[in-house]
Design goal:
The N and C termini lie far apart (about 65 Å). The strands form 5 sheets. The protein has a 4-stranded mixed β-sheet. It has 5 helices and 18 strands. A hairpin with a 4-residue loop joins strand 2 and strand 3.
Length: about 280
């Protein structure tokens, strides 16, 4: 038999009110209420199911929608702890979820967060909580949330990409340039900050064409290193000037033509940002 969820005080009052002598039916009913109340401590509900409850002060549940423990206090459900960064689809203009300071969401589909009158966000933006709140629209809890915009020159995160090249790929690097960062999408450009070349010498030198370069727009290259060394080395080169084109990948190549001879390998890394035009 399913019991009724009650508080500790209610269960104590029920125990005091049990008939004397106690009947079997009364005892079973009381025990059912104790079991139901105990199980409710870790009862799982979706947000919709939770909102259909008749909760009591201090009641705890596990919300499978927000993936964390919540408790009921002062007529609202509040989270018990912070959650890991989770993805949020903003195409349907969702409201903010209940949150603690430090909770954050990464936008995977552009739209509006906080309802129809909320903040406009793009893919890659980080939405984070600055004041604990019960969730809701921009009008009700918008001041409790901030957005770190990935398309801002100051807020865009610095990322890193790396490519490893065999000697066969290096020998064909002029005729077959290698992509190190894929195109960022319409209206976006790659902004390289610095390059890291880790050259691993083999047994023979590359010759003829040895200048290592990077480019976004073909024909507008920047020098980032060399493959003409006779020993292992690591070279860090800042990107000083590069002609950019929207929605175009960043590639590495060798100037003038393919090198000759040589059997060394290397990895080339780049620190970069994505800028929205």
């Amino acid at each position: 038999m399913a019991g009724t969820i009650k508080t500790k005080a209610q269960l104590y009052a029920d125990a005091v009110a049990l008939p004397n002598p106690i009947t079997r039916a009364a005892l079973v009913a009381h025990l059912d209420n104790i079991v139901a109340s105990y199980e409710n401590i870790i009862q799982e509900y979706t947000t919709v199911q939770r909102d259909a409850l008749t909760p009591f002060e201090g009641q705890k549940i596990y919300n499978t929608t927000s993936n964390r423990l919540e408790y009921y206090s002062a007529s609202m459900w509040l989270p018990c702890s912070q959650k890991e960064t989770v993805a949020v689809d903003c195409s349907a203009n969702p409201n903010y979820q209940e949150a603690l300071v430090g909770d954050q969401y990464i936008v995977t589909v552009a739209g509006i967060i906080g309802g129809g009158s909320g903040k406009t966000v793009s893919v890659g933006d980080l939405v984070y909580c600055v004041a604990a709140n019960a969730g809701g629209t921009e009008a009700s809890v918008g001041t409790s949330w901030k957005v770190c915009y990935s398309n801002s020159s100051t807020d865009a995160p610095t990322m890193y990409a790396e490519i490893s090249l065999s000697s066969a790929q290096i020998l064909a690097l002029n005729s077959s340039p290698q992509t190190i960062v894929a195109a960022a999408g319409a209206g976006k450009i790659i902004v390289p900050i610095s390059f890291v070349e880790n050259f691993i010498y083999g047994t023979s030198d590359y010759a003829t064409n040895t200048q290592l370069e990077a480019y976004i727009t073909s024909g507008s290259n920047t020098i980032i290193g060399t493959i003409g060394a006779s020993t292992d080395y690591i070279l860090i080169s800042p990107c000083t000037s590069l002609l950019a084109t929207s929605n175009t990948s960043l590639k590495i190549t060798i100037d003038n033509g393919n090198p000759t001879a040589g059997d060394s390998t290397m990895t080339v890394g780049v620190y970069y940002k994505i800028h929205t035009l």
